[in-house]
């Protein structure tokens, strides 16, 4: 296999030109507490899970909305837990407190802080991707830059500021949410592969340079 070229910092301006990455697996929307139990049972049987959350954006000073969506993905399935409808059920707390399954997230500390507004739980074992990629010498912190750097594809952020409290999520919102959680799994697996095989070359970019 060819050695992969990665950069300590990826030029944001180049991301727009990349082909788009979209999750193409199953996306399952969870609307009831009963459904969360089945979903969590399935998720805890999987080897690696990617986590992310979405919250309705606030455009007024001092206004803060509660987390609307928790998305949890494997490589081929993503569950979208509509927390506005389900609440933080015992099954979801079990998932968040789990210490046996490999769980990964990006800026996960912020997500945990927001989820605590819905209920009390003690976070289980989570791998923070921002720390993990740093072990390869990558300094970028955003999911979009990390994915572009490792896979040469663009994750669209167009739906980020949409209404996550809507009664029904549209297809673009579902695709966006699922892609973010799935991307965490992809990044984790690729970083672990590169760490084990050393099949990469890190190019150090100075602030004034751009990625070729």
Overview of this structure, please?
With 212 residues, the chain is of the alpha/beta class. It contains seven helices and eight strands, in the order ββαβββααβαβαααβ. The protein has helices spanning 33-43, 83-86, 90-97, 108-115, 129-134, 143-151, 171-197; strands spanning 4-7, 26-30, 48-55, 67-73, 77-82, 102-105, 127-128, 200-203. Strand 4 and strand 5 (77-82) form a beta hairpin. The radius of gyration is 17 Å and the shape is globular. The two termini are 22 Å apart. The mean pLDDT is 93.
Enumerate the strands of the largest sheet in spatial order, edge to edge or round the barrel. Answer: 2-5-4-3-6-7
Strand content: 15-25%
Written as H for each helix and E for each strand, in order along the chain, the element string is: EEHEEEHHEHEHHHE
Characterize the largest beta sheet: strand count, sense, and whether it forms a barrel. Answer: 6 strands, mixed
How would you sum up the global shape? globular
Mean pLDDT: 93
- Compute the CA-based radius of gyration: 17 Å
The secondary-structure class comes to alpha/beta
Oligomeric form:
single chain
Q: Into which percent range does the helicity of residues fall?
A: 25-40%
Number of helices: 7
N- to C-terminal separation?
A: 22 Å
**Poorly predicted regions:** none
């Amino acid at each position: 296999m060819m050695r992969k070229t990665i950069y300590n910092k990826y030029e944001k301006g180049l991301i727009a030109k990349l082909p788009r990455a979209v999750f193409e697996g199953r996306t399952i929307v969870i609307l009831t507490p009963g459904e969360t139990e089945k979903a969590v049972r399935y998720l805890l049987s999987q080897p690696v899970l990617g986590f992310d959350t979405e919250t309705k954006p606030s455009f007024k000073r001092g206004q803060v909305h509660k987390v609307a969506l928790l998305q949890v993905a494997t490589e081929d399935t993503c569950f979208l837990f509509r927390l506005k409808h389900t609440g933080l059920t015992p099954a979801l707390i079990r998932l968040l407190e789990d210490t046996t399954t490999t769980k990964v997230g990006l800026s996960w500390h912020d997500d945990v802080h927001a989820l605590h507004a819905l209920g009390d739980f003690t976070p289980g074992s989570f791998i923070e991707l921002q720390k993990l990629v740093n072990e390869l010498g990558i300094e970028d912190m955003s999911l979009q830059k990390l994915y572009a750097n490792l896979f040469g594809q663009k994750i669209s952020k167009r739906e980020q500021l949409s209404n996550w409290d809507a009664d029904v999520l549209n297809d673009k919102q579902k695709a966006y949410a699922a892609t973010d959680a799935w991307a965490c799994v992809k990044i984790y697996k690729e970083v672990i592969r590169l760490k084990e095989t050393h099949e990469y070359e890190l190019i150090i970019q100075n602030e004034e340079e751009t990625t070729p």
